[in-house]
Amino acid sequence: MSRRYPLSLQNVSKSYRLFGRRSNFQTLKSALLKRELVQEPEASSVALHDISFDVDKGEAFGIIGRNGSGKSSLLKIVSGIFKPTTGKVVVDGRLSALIELGAGFHPEISGRENIYINGIMLGLSKREIASRFDRIVEFAGIGEYLEQPVKTYSSGMYVRLGFSVAVHVDPDILLIDEVLAVGDEEFSQKCVAKIQEMKLRGVTMLFVTHQLDHVRNLCDRALWLDHGQMASIGDPARVVDDYLQSVSQTMRKTPAAAVVEVHATPDLDESDDKDSMLEEERWGSGEVLLSKARILGSDGSELVALGAGTAVTLEMELEVREPQTDFVIGVGIYSADGTCVYGTNTDLEGWVSTSLHGGARVHFSVPSLDLVAGTYRFDAAVHTRNGRAFDYRRGVIRFVVGSRVHDIGVYRPKHTWTFEGDIELTSFDTSERDVPASMRETLKELDAENRAQSVVEESSSRGAKGRRRKPGESA
After folding, report:
1. pLDDT of residue 265
2. Contact, 362 vs 329, CB < 8 A?
3. Low-confidence residues of the chain, pLDDT below 70?
4. What span, in angstroms and rounded, lies between the C-alpha atoms of 11 and 6?
5. How many whole angstroms separate alpha carbon 211 and alpha carbon 310?
6. Residue by residue, what is the 3-state secondary structure of the chain?
């Protein structure tokens, strides 16, 4: 039995008929003289060609591409506004669509009346709309203009009201076209928060946007449409980078730089482990390469296993094939299931790029990597400020964190327990519980090293504060 998806497109194509100038203004008399009432198109334009993909329940699927690439046509086909020329679209569930700004609104009547009309068009009863009315108005933020005709609304108010109605009909599938780009920053943040909430509730989302950061941060997968064809589909970061590379090459009008080949690292063991943590993905233009990356301990030794709270440094070596003035170096830590634990880059932290030529070495140091026990990966990248990757290495390093304590989650903050009143507990050494003897000894050694390092650093700090330099003495 084949799997059933909330949304499935199978070999969908869409062509528009193009009529000549004369045929557009054909009169009844000229048609009778030619004995031909049916106009024949002079040509056709292909908007979409052989589009196939499935969207799973609760998945956010982004669509990007240049203007005129077929993004809005695709959404209109999914919503039922257009019919595909060939192919099949299967929609399983209640669908809510916000395709065009103010679509379904009557300009002469009030916002209140339009909420009811729009809600009924989306499949709600009058009673259901009444029960959600206050939430719709509150989210849209148009309370003082609720009784005014919507023709007096700004474009931002239009889209806020339309989006609010669309997300409060409790759809199974939500289609959005460029809504997140309209409105002020406050409303944009509300939209993002609402999308994340709907994802957690299992709502399937398909949205078109030119805001590439939203695709990277909100989408589980993405599709890049180029002249109506599927240019790239898959991981959002990679699809966005493919698109940016194409835009950059078009603007420069020069041959593409050498592309870094995607390759996989050898399995960590010989077992048949299909965990994605074992595979490195790599892409970019290749103008700058991350030739080497490794984790170093406080003594400079390379680490692959460490204890919770260990001081670490991620060392990255850069190979520059073409000098750059616009560059950003970024890192990310991910858990075994792909959850982002932490990520940052030089641009976010106020480092303005000036010059990069020849070889370079970069160190990202963490005084205490407070992760719970588990398997993690480091991602590292060097890219332009707008996100076009020179070299993006996903899973460039895998490492294991061991701990005496079996916490839950990914982050282990420094903390203590205190107890007062009529309560009694007896402490025990957690290293003796469910830990193999070999790992137990390793953890004890790491704890001893960390304690010794802390004592040295504390003594050095006290010494530096206690000794004052004499007048004229150099630092």
Report:
1. 34
2. yes
3. 1-2, 18-43, 100-104, 179-184, 249-279, 428-444, 446-447, 450, 454-475
4. 17
5. 38
6. CCCCCCEEEEEEEEEEEECCHHHHCCCHHHHHHHCCCCCCCCEEEEEEEEEEEEECCCCEEEEECCCCCCHHHHHHHHHCCCCCCEEEEEECCCEEEECCCCCCCCCCCEHHHHHHHHHHHCCCCHHHHHHHHHHHHHHHCCHHHCCCEHHHCCHHHHHHHHHHHHHCCCCCEEEEECCCCCCCHHHHHHHHHHHHHHHHCCCEEEEECCCHHHHHHHCCEEEEEECCEEEEEECHHHHHHHHHHHHHHHHHCCCCCCCCCCCCCCCCCCCCCCCHHHCCEEECCCCEEEEEEEEECCCCCECCEEECCEEEEEEEEEEECCCECCCEEEEEEEECCCCEEEEEECCCCCCCCCCECCEEEEEEEEEEECECCEEEEEEEEEECCCCCEEEEEEEEEEEEEECCCCCCCCECCCCCCCCCCCCCCCCCCHHHCCCCHHHHHHHHHHHHHHHHHHHHHHHHHHHHHHCCCCCCCCC
> Which long-range contacts does 393-397 make (Cβ < 8 Å, 24+ apart)?
393/280, 393/281, 393/282, 393/290, 393/293, 394/237, 394/280, 394/281, 394/282, 395/265, 395/276, 395/277, 395/279, 395/280, 395/281, 395/334, 396/280, 396/290, 396/293, 397/293, 397/294, 397/295, 397/314
Q: Which residue has the tokens 């979409």?
A: 48
Rounded distance between C-alpha atoms, residue 254 and residue 246, angstroms:
11
How many C-beta atoms surround the C-beta of residue 77 within 10 A? 23
CA distance 388 to 243: 9
Domains along the chain with CATH numbers: 7-249 (3.40.50.300), 276-402 (2.70.50.60)
Q: Indicate the pTM of the whole model.
A: 0.62
What does the alpha-carbon distance between residue 332 and residue 237 come to, in Å, rounded to a whole number?
Answer: 13
Match 């009811």 to its residue by tokens: 116
Using CA atoms, how far apart are residues 357 and 359, in angstroms rounded to an integer? 7
The span from the CA of 284 to the CA of 389, in Å, is: 5
CB 316 within 8 A of CB 290: yes
Is 51 in contact with 13 (CB distance < 8 Å)? Answer: yes
Predicted pLDDT of residue 266: 33
Strand partners, 398: 377
